[in-house]
Each structure stands twice: as C-alpha cells, then as structure tokens.
Amino acid sequence: DAGVIQSPRHEVTEMGQEVTLRCKPISGHNSLFWYRQTMMRGLELLIYFNNNVPIDDSGMPEDRFSAKMPNASFSTLKIQPSEPRDSAVYFCASSIGGADTEAFFGQGTRLTVV
Amino acid sequence: GENVEQHPSTLSVQEGDSAVIKCTYSDSASNYFPWYKQELGKGPQLIIDIRSNVGEKKDQRIAVTLNKTAKHFSLHITETQPEDSAVYFCAASRGNDYKLSFGAGTTVTVRA
Q1: Which stretches within chain A are classed as H helix?
Q2: pLDDT at residue B98 above 80?
Q3: What gap in Å lies between CA A43 and CA B63, rounded to an integer?
Q4: How many angstroms away from the CA of A61 is the closest CA of chain B?
Q5: Is the previous residue joined to A84 through a cis bond, with omega within 30 degrees of 0?
Q6: Do A102 and B95 touch (CB under 8 A)?
Q7: A-interface mutation test, from B40, B51, B100, most A Cβ less than 10 A away
Q8: Pick from B42, B97, B99: CB nearest A45
C-alpha cells in the first residue's frame, strides 16, 4: 500500500478563496482523522470519521471549515472563505481502529493564504 | 478534555548519549499513550506506544515508562544516533471513540 495520500502537497491561495484538501486513506482502515499543525498550537485534531461517519468535529475552528467522507477511500477538507490565519500544514491520518490504534499520517498539505 | 504537557521543548545530546522526554496528562481515564516521531517535511510516525495495564515497554534503543498514579509517562532513547534527530510528540487517549491529544513536541538534535 502506498500509505495515506494527500493532495496537493503545497497550496498558495489568496484570502477569500475556497480551498479543498484531499485525502485517500489506507485501504481497510476504518478511521480517518484531519489534523492541523502550526508552531503556535502544535498538532490539533480537527475532525474524526469512523466508517465514513463524523464522530467528533469539535476541533473544527469555525463554520468556514467543513469535511466530508463520501466513501471509505476519499475525504476532503474545505475552507471557504480562506483567511491568512488558516495558513498551516494539514495532515490526514487513518487507522484500523479508533484513537487507540496506530495512526498512519500522510505527508501533509502546506497551505499558505496570502 | 485531555491536556498533555511535554518537556523539554528542545533537547541537544551528544551522539551515543541518552535522551529523555517527559509528558504529563490530566485525564485519569486516559489509557493509551503513543509516541510519534516527525522528520522534516514528513508526517508523524508511531515509534512506540504503551497502554495503561503496562508500566514499561522497550523496543531496541527506545523505551517508554508509565506512572498512572502520577499521570506521567516518559520516552527514553539510548545510544542516540544522528538519525534520531527529529521532533517527538507524546499523546494520550481515553480509548477508541475519544480523540488523541498531543503534547507540544520536543525537537531532539543529536550532535555528531
């Protein structure tokens, strides 16, 4: 398996634009996590899906952020409209079980909003 | 919610020496404690984990200890090598349906 695949690797966008980040989890994994990493706040869980259903979205910062998992092999994280403070590295991770099993992280998407 | 504190934030060691990173957690119901290593430009990768029914676990040069009474756990790396240079994160979770809370990370530099 190629591991968790995220796209794009880098995204530069202007403030106010819509941004969509994509993730393909490892086949057979039941859980998918979206994290945001910044110097100030470290690694923050944004949302957690289990069997394609959102279980915990309490980390989604505000209504500008939304996430979907239409099937077991694909998830998106959308920011609309984007703001400079959204600049961060966004990671997708998947695991066979829940938060108490090994999470496999993708390479991340570095988002810069100017 | 769970609050995980990690110390130190940076650690510089001579090659061959040991490195120790310490974490404390706030939720006494937490029962899963993994450690992740993040190299530059990559996502975090699990290096070792421990569950609350175990006090210590070792894997080659890496060991983790857990003190549930004091609510702290530590990562020990012995005989450090240049490839151990990375950012290390501790984390804690109450279990399957609860989120994993990460510490702020420790940047480890191994000097040759």
Answers
A1: none
A2: no
A3: 23
A4: 16
A5: no
A6: no
A7: B100
A8: B99
